[in-house]
Design brief:
The chain has a two-stranded antiparallel sheet with strand order 1-2. It is mainly alpha-helical. A hairpin with a 4-residue loop joins strand 1 and strand 2. It folds into two domains: about 80 residues; about 80 residues, no CATH class.
Length: about 180
């Protein structure tokens, strides 16, 4: 039994409600670190995936606009959380660069603690670093460019702000890694 797709109006309403809820939560918790803020961010990730995977997405300006609004907000959440982590002295996992180097060279024997070539706890950081080192390195915000990327581990969602050419290169890389 096929299910009917969610109406465009319902998706628009859900987008507006979640964005309002995230704005409210972020005003109440200036660092966006509360459990409620985390839940709202996860819900935004879920909705982004639903919208982006909707078969009407390529031809719907409304869906594309909603996805853009969600992506922008998720990037703001990412930047806020990174700043908060940096203030609290929490850094990226140690040895991450060596794990990415091992993946790049095919030296899987040096991937300590990982199973089947997966980066384990550092999976998101490793994936982001790998992509940023291989695909147009000067394009990414960490090197002063316009592109941005955030991995949301709880939802296993990678949000990327980039040109269509860079998106295609990322798709090809991810396909090759599978």
């Amino acid at each position: 039994m096929a299910t009917e797709p969610v109406s465009l109006t319902e998706l628009r309403v859900q987008t507006s409600e979640l964005l309002r809820e995230e704005a409210k939560v972020s005003r109440e918790n200036s660092r966006r670190q509360s459990p409620q803020a985390t839940m709202v961010a996860m819900n935004l990730c879920d909705l982004f995936v639903v919208i982006h995977n909707d078969p009407r997405y390529p031809n719907s300006e409304m869906l594309q606009g909603a996805a853009t609004r969600i992506r922008r907000r998720l990037i703001q959440v990412k930047q806020s959380r990174e700043a908060s982590l940096n203030r609290n002295g929490i850094t990226r996992p140690s040895g991450l660069s060596s794990q990415v180097d091992a993946l790049l060279t095919g030296d899987t024997a040096n991937l300590a603690g990982s199973a089947g070539g997966v980066l384990g706890e550092a999976e998101g950081w490793g994936l982001v670093e790998l992509i940023q080192r291989i695909i147009a390195p000067d394009f990414w915000d960490v090197r002063g460019g316009n592109g941005a990327m955030q991995y949301f581990a709880m939802q296993k969602v990678l949000v990327v702000r980039a040109t269509s050419d860079v998106h295609e290169q990322i798709r090809d890389l991810l396909t090759a890694l599978r």
